[in-house]
Amino acid sequence: MSDTTSREKILKKVRQALIHKTTQEQPDLDWETSIYNIPDEPMEILFAQKFTKLNGKFLFCEKEKEFALGLDALIKENNFGLVFAMEPKLKRLLSEANIPFTDNETDFSKLDVGVTLCESAVARTGSIFITSRQPSGRRLPVFPNYHVVLVYTSQLVMTHKDALKQISEKYNGQMPSLISCITGPSRTADIEKTLVQGAHGPKEIFVFLVDDTTPVA
Fold first, then answer.
1. Nearest to residue 86, comparing CAs of 133, 127, 124?
2. CA geometry: angle at 134 spanning 131 and 135, to 5°?
3. What residue ranges do the domains of the chain occupy?
4. How far apart are CA 194 and CA 93, in angstroms?
5. H-only helix segments in 20-156
6. Residue 49 contacts by C-beta under 8 Å, 6 or more apart in sequence?
7. How many Å apart are CA 112 and CA 2, to the nearest integer?
8. Which has the closest alpha carbon to 206: 57, 82, 49?
9. Helices (H) and strands (E) in the chain — how many of each?
10. Cα separations (Å) of 132 from 1, 76, 117, 139, 167?
11. Which CATH superfamily hosts domain 40-210?
């Protein structure tokens, strides 16, 4: 019987391919080598450039004390409302700087600014990784109008793969149930192709990058 349709011809070739398998060995794939060129810029510079290009607000601090002073000035300058922080390290820094804040769950719906730490920061894309294993939980990074993130230079990595590896090592291979990658403030252009920032999350994201790799003189 001769083939009468293009479909039958294609199916015949598929059947023949399944019967007569190739004997050519496939080369071993290299899953470890990066496909990206190594940038000349230090990761601190690269992250700052990428993050600000995404409309993020970036501040560099040599010490944690500068973070507290900078955050206090930011709050006063913009007349921010209720500040919420849940992580012990942040609560200590805010208390030492006399910055009013709350960690009371009953005040959560009233908060204006959420202050959190992060797990990793990706220099190549200007992204921040947070997880549900952090005391700030799932809600604090997405609920407030303004999200302030304290990032340390030791948390900077080059790629998303490096960030996931860093998180896996921190939790001994027990990955958190939620891993979020934040790349700039939330935004959408679904309505009449008009860009709206803060559509489904904070309107603005502020990153304070604190140097914890340079020895203190």
1. 133
2. 145
3. 40-210
4. 39
5. 43-53, 64-78, 88-96
6. 41, 126
7. 74
8. 57
9. 5, 11
10. 63, 30, 12, 9, 12
11. NagB/RpiA/CoA transferase-like (3.40.50.10420)
Neighbours of 79 (CB within 10 A): 7
| Residue 214 amino acid letter | T
Per-residue pLDDT of the chain (217 residues; tens, 9 = 90+): 555 688 888 888 888 888 877 666 767 767 777 777 778 889 999 999 999 999 999 999 999 999 999 999 999 999 999 999 999 999 999 999 999 999 998 988 889 999 999 999 999 999 999 999 999 988 888 889 999 999 999 999 999 999 999 999 999 999 999 999 999 876 666 666 665 665 667 889 999 999 998 765 5
User: Would the CA dihedral through 187, 45, 117, 125 be positive or negative?
Assistant: positive
pTM of the model: 0.80
Classify the phi-psi angles of 94: left when phi > 0, otherwise alpha if psi is within -120 to 50, otherwise beta.
alpha
How far is 148 from 73, CA to CA, in rounded Å? Answer: 13
